[in-house]
Design goal:
Blueprint (H helix, E strand, L loop, with lengths): L1 E8 L6 E7 L13 E3 L8 E3 L2 E3 L2 H23 L7 E6 L10 E5 L10 E7 L3 E11 L7 E8 L5 E10 L6 E4 L4 E6 L4 E3 L2 E8 L8 E14 L4 E6 L2 E7 L8 H19 L5
Antiparallel strand pairs: 1-2, 1-5, 2-3, 4-5, 6-18, 7-16, 8-15, 8-16, 9-13, 9-14, 9-18, 10-11, 10-15, 12-13, 16-17
Length: 278
């Protein structure tokens, strides 16, 4: 772009400055255009051609600084979109594991009557490492061994293939906190439990079978509590919590950010190839 040269001289003629304005009437004036001193403190490499100031280095330097700041702000915005990670609640079946259950215990197994595991459904939104599992048992039956399993879910909502199984003896409980309703919130730390995003079943069972494991039923939650060998228990859920860390999904760049980055790249290429007037 060409600019019309302007010269200003102070009243005592000791200081003289030049400035510039767009040469075309249709080009809007640039509010940041400045006066440049002429003489011993003159800005370097100002090209004057027939009364016009062309491509001053000062303008090139200012534009370069503006583009650098703009690029920095874009990078900061991109970094700000990265979701936070770390230990967190991955899933909780009911709001409060210390709440009053609807049914104090579904036996799993029922001593002398057999029976299988109790299942409930949970969903993970991303690949997750499960470091801790808390679940409710009924304190009336004491503290038996608890086998915790993770299963796929079939189209009919029934448990499919078993993906994980670990048996925890009472001595392996991280904690066992009794509630005023006769239930106990047990916390265990599973070994190497990593699950991708999807829908799963969790199961609770005393595999030894010589002591009853009681699993309370709560209203709400998934409403998909399933007693193997019997049926679904409509509208009820087991009380459990999965904690750990989730791997955040890739965050796509906003289209406007992509276009700005492309524009900055082209601007940098042109600036590199262009030689300043001297």
């Amino acid at each position: 772009m060409e600019h019309q040269l302007i010269q200003l001289t102070s009243s005592d003629a000791t200081t003289r400055c030049v400035g510039f304005t767009p040469s075309s009437p249709s080009t809007p004036a640039e509010p940041w255009a400045r006066l440049l001193p002429v003489g011993p403190y003159a800005a370097p490499s100002i090209k004057v051609d027939n009364g016009r100031l062309r491509a001053p280095l000062v303008r090139q330097v200012e534009m370069g600084q503006v583009m650098k700041l703009k690029l920095l702000s874009i990078l900061v915005a991109i970094l700000g979109w990265v979701p936070p990670t770390g230990a967190d609640t991955l899933f909780q079946s009911i709001p409060d594991l210390t709440a009053n259950p609807v049914v104090n215990a579904y036996c799993s197994p029922c001593y002398g009557r057999g029976g299988g595991p109790l299942f409930d459904t949970f969903i993970l939104g991303s690949t997750s490492t499960v470091d801790s599992i808390s679940f409710d048992i009924d304190g009336y039956y004491g503290f038996p061994n608890v086998d915790v399993g993770i299963w796929t879910v079939t189209g009919g909502g029934l448990p499919g293939s078993q993906l994980f199984s670990q048996t925890f003896a009472p001595a392996q409980f991280v904690s066992a906190v009794s509630t005023v309703f006769g239930t106990v919130v047990v916390t265990v730390d599973p070994t190497a439990l990593v699950l991708s995003s999807g829908t799963y079943d969790i199961s609770f069972f005393n595999r030894g079978g010589v002591q009853t494991l009681g699993v309370p039923g709560y209203s709400g939650g998934s409403g998909m509590l399933y007693d193997q060998g019997y049926s679904f228990i409509s509208g009820q859920s087991a009380g459990f919590n999965l904690s750990g860390s989730a791997t955040p999904a890739a965050v796509p760049l906003h289209p406007s950010i992509v276009s700005e980055l492309i524009g900055l790249g082209l601007f940098g290429l042109l600036a590199w190839r262009r030689k300043p007037f001297v």
